[in-house]
Structure formats: C-alpha cells, structure tokens
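FIELD: query
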Amino acid sequence: MTTITQQASSTFIKSKKHSRLSAPSLSAPALAVLATLAMPLAYAEDAPALADEASLPKVVINAGADRSVQGPIRASSDKFTAPLLDTPKSITVVTSETISQTGAVSLTDALRTVPGITIGAAEGGNPVGDNLFIRGYNAQTDTYVDGIRDSGSQSREIFAIEQIEVVKGPNSALGGRSSAGGGINIVTKTAKEYDFNNATVGIGTDQYRRVTGDLNRVLGNNAAFRLNVMAHENNIAGRNVVGGDRWGIAPSITFGLNGPTRATLSYYHMESSEIPDTGIPFNNPFTTGPNLARNGGGTPYTVDREAFYGLVNRDFRDTETDVATVDLRHEFSPSLTLRNVTRYGKSGQDYVWTQPDSSIGNAALYGTVWRRANTRIVDTETVANSTSLGGTWNTAGIKHSFNVGVEFSREQTDRGTYVFSPGTNNPLTGNSTCPTSGAPTLYNCTTLVNPNPYDPWVTTRSKSPTLTSVDTTTRAVYGFDTIEFSPQWQLNLGARWDDFRTELNTPAVGATAATRALVDTSFDTYQAGLVYKPKANGSIYLSWATSATPPGNDGGDGLDALTVAIQNLQPQVSRNIELGTKWEVLPGGRLSLSAAVFKSDMDNARVTAPDGTTQNVGRKELKGVELGFSGRVTPAWTVFGGYTYLDGVIADNGFVNTGSTAAPVWTPSPFNGNAFPTTPKHSASLWTTYALNKAFTIGGGANFADRQFANINNTKYAPAYTRFDAMASYTYSPNVSFQLNIQNLTDKLYFDRVSSPHYAGVGAGRSASLMANLKF
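FIELD: result
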C-alpha cells in the first residue's frame, strides 16, 4: 500500500517511483551509462570511413536503392524473397540516418515522416504506449523486432535501431494474426566487421538532455562486439509538468562473421519514468436532450495549451523492458541458408494516468472536468522460436527464391489495477458529476480553464485484488516463393497457417465470480503478386493479400480484449487488392519513385447483430492512393516524403438498441456509412536536406494530416494541421560534427493523438536541441 502526499511545485517533475534527473546529477543507472561512454578509447583503431564527407545520409522508401552499395535493396526479413523494387507491396524503410536527421528520439517520432500512419490516444481499456494506426486500422499489436512479434504495450526508443520497415496492407501471411492496415518491423543494431566508437551529447529547451554511445569492437578474426547505451531526459514543450527520463543498454556479440555459420547474441534493456500527458477534452458531449444546444463544433475545447488535468501527486508511469535474443544462421551453400531465432522478452508498465473526462457534460454544464484515474499494472512475458530455410533454385529454366519456416510462441500477460481510498468520484454527488470543483470534491473535479496540477490531492493507493491473466500460444507454418519466369515477369506467392489459442482467467474476488474465456482457432492467410518489369529499374505489380484478426488478438494488453461474449467468434478477415509501380530514376538510380492504388474490405467485422448478440456480420471498406519518393535529386540535395489518400467507410456497423434494457428494439446503426476514426483522408510528409558545402547542411520538413474523427459517430474530431521542422548541421572535423534541430518551427497548436471519444492529445510545442556527434 502506498500513501500519496502533496509535493511542492517544481520545475522538475517527480514520479512516484523514480526521481527525475536533476540538472547537476543523474540516477545511478544513468550514471552507469555515462561511465560506459567515458571508457578510455584512446588506443582504439580509427574506424574506416563509411562515406565521403560530402555525402548526405541515405533515405530509402518503397524500394529506393542504397547508393552506397552495389546490388538491389532488400528488407531485413528473409520472408521477403525479392528486392524491394520487385516486391508487390507498399513498403517504407526509414533508415537510422533519417531518424538522426529529423531529431527523432522515439518510434512514434520516427514514424511521423511516414504518411498513412496516425497515433491513437490511450483510454481505460487501451494502454498508454505506441498506439499506431496504419491505413485506418489499429496496429498496436503489429510491431515486430527483427521479424519476431514484440508483445506488450510499450513506448519504444530508437537508440538501438538500425532502421524501421513499414509494410502497408494486410500482413498476416508475414507475421500471423494482425490488423488489416499493416505492420512495423524494427531492425536492431548488431555487431559489425570493423571498429568504431560513436557518441552523441545533446542539450536543448524544455530541459532536454540526451547522451548516447555506440561502440563496436572486432574480436579476433571472426567475431565482434557492439554496445549501444542511452540516457535521456526532457519535458514536453508547451505542456505543463509533462515529461520524464529513461535509460537503456543494448549489447550484442556476433561469432562467425566470415564463415558459413553465424551466431548473434543480443540483449536489450530500457527503463523509463514519467508523468504521462492528459490531453484536452472534446466539447460536444450531448447527442439528444435539452442540453443539445450547448454542444460545440466537435473539436477539443479552446483552453490554454498548457492546461494539464492530471495530478502531480497521483500521476506516474514507470516502464521496464528486457529482451534477449539468440540468432543462429548457417549457409549450406550460397543458395541455401538455415536460420533459427530464439527470443525471451519481458515488458511491463505501472501507471496512474488522468483522463480528462467530460463524457456526461461537466465541461459544457459547469465548466468543470472529472479527473478520471486510469490505472494499470501489467507484465507481459514472451518466449518465441522461429526456424526458416531460404535460398534459390532453378527448374525448367524458372528461378525460385524461397523461404519456408515454422514459428512457435507463448505470451503470458498479467494485468491488474489500483484502487483508491476514499475513491476518485466526487463525494458530493457520489459519481463523476462535477457541479463544483476543488477541495469539497477532494480535487477529483477541477476547472476546465486553468486546472491546477499541484492540487493537494491526498489519498491511499493499493493494488486491486482482481487480477486478469491471459495466456496465448501460437504455432505457425509458412512459405514464400518469388518465381522469375523471365527478366520481365515474376510471381510472388506466400501462405501461412496459424494455430492460435488464448485463454483469459480472472479469479473470483468476494462476491464476484471467476471468469474464463477461451479461443482455440486456426486460420489460413495468403498473399500473391504479379510483377512486370518493363525495364530493369522499374516494376509494375498487381497484388492480393489477406489478414486475420482473431478474438483476443492483443494477448490481454490492448483494445481487443478477450471476453466471454466474443470467445466463440471467428477471426475477422480482411482482403486487399493493390496496383502499384516502383521506379529508380536519375543516373545510378539515385531517386526512387512509387505509386499505388488499393482497396481493402472486411466483411465479417464484429458488430451487434439484429438479436443483440455480437456476431461477425459487419463490413468495413477502405480505398486509397499512396505516393512515395526518396533519394537524391542532385548529389547535394536529398528528398524523402509521400502522400496518402484514405477513404475508409463503416459500411455496416450492425444494430443498436433504440428501445429500453427491458424491452430492446434493435435497429440498424445510425453510423452506417460513417468514416473510419483516426483516419485522415489526406496526409503528406516531406523531409529534405541540402549540402551547401562539405561542412554545412541545412534541412527541413513538413507533415500534414487532415481532420481525424475520434469516434465512430463522427461527432468529435481533431482538426487538420501542418507542422514544420528544421535542421542544420556543421562538420567541424572528421570526428566532430554538430546538429541543430527545431521541432514545430511555427509553434503550431495541433492535436496528434485521437481515438478516445473523451479527449485529444496535444502535439508538442516548439523546441530546439543541439547535438554534438563524436567519433573516437
């Protein structure tokens, strides 16, 4: 049991478990990271030059060619059996150079450069963390690390990331259970075949401080060791009291660098502590009744940008992630390779987070907001193993590039909550109605305008005796083959069979009975694509793919929670057809262009049937256009960007009760034909840099997102916005360079996180950071 008492106001935020980093000192783990960075490197051999000093960082999108190496670009996954140029899918690859140039320090930061991806807001059933939507579908559970599903809600860092691969469209043939929108594969940094020592030290506005280190050592003739470390702290620009600190370490060692057998052992650890953001409530809570005239236009309330509805004395979020991986690979010959990957992972988070709740009309009626306490104590433990055989072979003059394999995994999620005494309701009303605010309400109600995050909220917090446990096991067999009939024609085929079993157990507590729900199902998913190459530097493709989303897809840690009501339902199946083209143009193929039109359908979505039960009888439809470009327009000028058009429609949302609980009357949903929530119709991004000379480079970017609805009713939405960023770098010497980033250059007030019908997340205000990049 923990007693929470008032803390004095401070420019530094204090979490409930870990002290924030103060200006002159760091926490013990962070000091250990900094000590690692300070290891004597004076006798290290100079790292070989990776590129000419005048060259600019590489950016690859939708099969863009890597101009620093020979041969076609391939994705990191062996399941892609053709170069990206000839892969009949929309795939965006964001390199570490792009991440560094844009000043990104998290996965969501890095993905803002990819149009068609939006960020969802957390809520009671939806945990705080990377809540991503791809092509209108929630892809929260569709994140992979080096091809293995990364389970558990997290906020992922970038210090140990080599590149990020975004696969658009149904993804189940590649990764198993998934949404219809696509998936994200994070490629981690592993040991290289040469020595180098890199470090960055950064300071900035809003108490931004960041230190990273990247050290690589060759061990003898056939092994190498790499170590990545990070310590970071910052507040969020324009958001009162929001911020946190984190630190991480990621060592890896590879044996057999130059032989047919290679083994890579890696480990990743990260911890974070923060006060999470609360956002600003929407201003139209009424749908019927006498207060309908009080509704606003559907946008968040117009209040001070820094309005924070949480409580410093109550709110906190602590996370911890550990991942250990053994990756074994053996080449029987240049045309046949066997690979086995085993991973153990554990991720957990612990938080009390205030949601500004005005769902019953407090803000419109009384100018108040109820401080709803969302809490979660969750640990997800995963063991996974994947074995694959890949290579090439020829028969009857036809070339095959193939990959076949089997996968096994088990995920165990234990989730609990906190309870408070005397409680978080308004004691004057006994519920969440807030006609007044302040001390008489025990500060559980606050004002819409100028809420005080340092209100002396005092109560006792303890863990709830109710604990939910979800155990998920999967078995899968898959196969992929790219069949090359001639230099002009290729056929890409893929299929996967999954056996999926997930079980939910909630023990009995007092008068509450125990709950058990079980899903035991299997499903097949496919992909096929015909590729025509009119020239060696281009391709035109027509593809088809499916995805399957079974009940309990989230493994107990997300929106798709398993319940008794849905345990007997079939997986939701989506189909996508896509026509696209990819080209590498200009001398050396230095500029990549891509375009695609697509249409996806889900005709067995889970909705309420005419009898009031939940059944697979709904339908969703999505069509869109995607354009991409990246590379060098000239040797000094790079570009990276794209545009996405998405028209998502809830074609059949089932039925709603227009009668009473005792005498229900089920009528077709009034939301039929409404737009997908969290899906801007138009989105675009551009990042560009220009080398003025060998020393100076300037760059800038723009991100546009159209209006995004927060609910299926289409009554609440975040307005469209355009955000601008800028960058300038200066190379002082081969071993020292500096980079200045200004985020949100115009200090635009915008909302970049929706999906909750109660509030919208506020985008960070203008901030600046200066990084020193060092090579030893």
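FIELD: remark
The radius of gyration is 26 Å.
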